[in-house]
From TrEMBL:
It comes from Nitrococcus mobilis Nb-231. Pfam families: Proton_antipo_M, Proton_antipo_N. NCBIfam families: PRK08168.1. Residues 73-293 form the NADH:quinone oxidoreductase/Mrp antiporter transmembrane domain. This is Probable inorganic carbon transporter subunit DabB. It is a multi-pass membrane protein. Part of an energy-coupled inorganic carbon pump. Keywords: Cell membrane, Membrane, Transmembrane, Transmembrane helix, Transport. Forms a complex with DabA.
Amino acid sequence: MLAATSQALFAEAHPLPWLSSSPVSLVMLLLISFIGLIIARYSQHYLAGERRESHYYCSLQLTLAAVSVVVISNHLLLLLAAWIAISLSLHQLLMFYPERPRAALAAHKKFLFARIAEGSLLGAALLLYAEHGTWRIDEIVAAYPVAQLSLYEQIAALLLALTALIKCAQLPVHGWLIQVVEAPTPVSALLHAGIINLGGYLLILFAPLLTQAAAAQWLLLVFAGLTTLLAGLIMMTRTSIKVRLAWSTCAQMGLMLVECALGLFELALLHLIAHSCYKAYAFLNAGSTVEAQLYRQLAPAGRPDARAWLEAALLSTALVAAPVAYLAPAGPYSPWLLLTLTLSLVLAERAGRLHAGKLLPALGLAVVLITAYGLQKSGAAWLAPELPPSAGALGDAWVCLLVASLFLGYILLRYAPNSALGRRLWQSIYAGLYLDEWATRTTLAVWPIRLPVRANAKQLPQPLLNRESLS
């Protein structure tokens, strides 16, 4: 629907050569405009009367303008300039409450990681220019596929993958994303719904180059794949709604990058659009999210028995096997495994304390999900077609292993948290494997900062000492 709307609106547009009118760029521009409008309207009430309200709106407009330039840019230097502008204006939004130590620390780490990502993107741009003799992105992308990538192109693909990993806050540079919940809610919604997705958009933009660079694909498969697994499990150990949403974003971005590494760029684009809309709604509706979470705690899903699991596994396998047999895909098969396991959970956990959990409604929901997924994936394929990756069957097997591990970890934490293995897993992942602590120490060692001190910092009461107690 987004694709059709964008084509209808911009079919007659004739932009400048250094601006792109590709369907993907127009869909992204329409998405950003929609999300930006919602956030601006929400901010009118949320920040009414704030001392720095005018400063907020100035930074918000600059950020939205820079993001819009990134998605319609057809020039490497313009893309880089807008990418830097996003980081600088976003820094002002993250520091809206400069007196908060956690906000200042998160913005400081984000600022340093952003400089690394920008340096990586600059290196990729220079290498691609040296190889092709042009700054225009469409001319560079049109040169692929080629018989064999040169050394410059291999390094450029690696740098693009590194830029995407940092921009999408993948482990171990993820901590700032978890800590920016100190910023105002509209800022969190803008960050999670629009800005952090740009790493995936960058890979979709240079998809023909990425699919020929096996080293870049494996860099994404390893780091983004492990981030998806660990962040998805860590999210289950958190109680704060905003922190859970932040870990969810980290995991979702990892899955989107894995899809790009597997050559499923149409699926990654669909994932990007769906995640943007969902996360904007989730953050702006955080109050109702807390209420919904309380309802889930009061009426949790019933514990499935062996028969329920077997029934769910057989039904979900049959439901997924039908479109697979009809479409006869050559691979990869890991997304179908993920869909099968997800439907198994939906069917097995359909029973709660407040409802009987009949099979027919749950089965109908599963059919609707598969149908919607197939139709949307076909529509997204028109914008970003699937390309064969260099990682091949080995990369697909790696993702299948990660998906199975995520499913088993979920079962263990959900239904056996007090077992010896469950307690060991909980203790291991609750602190995020201490990766953020390592990244924070490294960041402060490279670039120290004096954090603000709260004016009303809590202090423990001191006991009263008298002469007898001293003696």
